[in-house]
Amino acid sequence: MKPIDKEILHIALPSIVSNITVPLLGLVDVAITGHLGAASYIGAIALGGMIFNLVYWIFGFLRMGTSGLTAQAYGKNQSFSKSPLEGAVNTSEIPSMGDLGGPLLWLLRSQIIGLGIALALLILQVPIRELALLIMQPSEEVRAFTVTYFNICIWGAPATLGLFGLNGWFIGMQNSRIPMMIAITQNVVNIVASLCFVFGLGMKVEGVALGTFIAQWCGFLMGALLCLRFNKKNNNTFRISGKIFEREAMLRFFSVNRDIFFRTICMVCVMMFFTSAGSWQGEVILAVNTLLMQLYLLVSYIMDGFANAGEALSGKYFGAGNKLALHDTIYRLFFWGFLMVLAFTVVYVLGGKPFLGLLTNEPSVVAASSDYVWWAYIIPFVSTSAFMWDGIFIGLTASRQMFQSMLVASITFFILYYLFHTTFGNHGLWLAFLGFLFVRGVVQTILYRIDKIGFGHTV
After folding, report:
1. Are 65 and 260 in contact (CB under 8 A)?
2. Which of 381, 136, 140, 406 lies closest to 270, judged by CA?
3. What is the pLDDT of residues 195-218, one digit of tens each?
4. In the beta sheet, which residues pair with residue 322?
5. Between 205-233 and 140-153, two packed helices, what is the crossing angle to 10 degrees?
6. Are 311 and 394 in contact (CB under 8 A)?
7. I need a labelling partner for 125 at 20 to 30 A (CA). Which of 97, 195, 320, 323 fits?
């Protein structure tokens, strides 16, 4: 195994574990409320979780932007502390991330911006809550429980957004094990706290919400303490060497995160439309699409682990000016991506239908899923390139190109949907979605070559 492969797996494997634990926080809440004796409790948790997932997804740039900028600063510091690099280019061609204050400053900037966003969410919590409930229009009982859940969990926003920045910083520092430990700890705390509040103290939805709230703050505080320990251990290398609010650095931070923000908006629009378009075809098709989407999410959890490795390593080698190592990283990432395509395709073809059978025993849904499950077989092939390039582009802070590719892919999605949904129904919807995934990867490949991202002048 090549050294670069070891580096990729060293970051990717813990990231995969972290990604898989993410949905467990929501599943634990649903499982506990499912034993409270009323469907309205489950509905409230589902709606409340959906609101927060959407809000936090939009602000995911705090993690991605911090990761890329930190990795570049880390790589630049390393380039000055070691002998001349093989395949190095003139470092004057590279944005001087390290000169703007070093890796730790990017963390501090992300924390300040995250805190500002969290305060805005707390101030605007009532309008946000009421707008979401107006759109969803739940029953009065579900609405009352959702309000209770929301009113408690919203106070976890500072911790959640702060942890976004911390996790991005750790990945940029080539350490994905700490985010993994934090994610596992959060789940354990959530399970224990929720069980104690609900079954020990007799609480209902408020007990589940308090468990989630405590888990969020425990995760953030653990991350902050581990960050202090990490920085103290490497004090000579990772000291603060500039001003937090230096104008050029803040403009860079906002520029990168602005494009990632708009990219996320495009993705949210596509995913929400996909869900809505399925519901327009009836509850059976909605259920089928929800089940098949679990197969897509499983791919995303694994591929995002390799994307995180792409963020850390491409950013490091770009910051260090090591052109050969950067190109080797990209090549090996796609090698691992190809292996994952083969593995997932075989697993889905052999076990896709049995897996869907484990998720539901509803006869109408099981029968309908047989007509559409073959779309899931194609998901790994059409989506892998986009996942790999996303990680690489984040590491290179090529956020403008990320937004451009997402915009083109989103437009493609809607064009394909309106061209084919009337004739092919739900097959047309899945054609549009897979076209969206495939076009993202194709456009990113073209942009990488045309714009010479990496050591050109567009990053």
Report:
1. yes
2. 406
3. 899 888 888 888 889 998 999 999
4. 88
5. 20
6. yes
7. 195
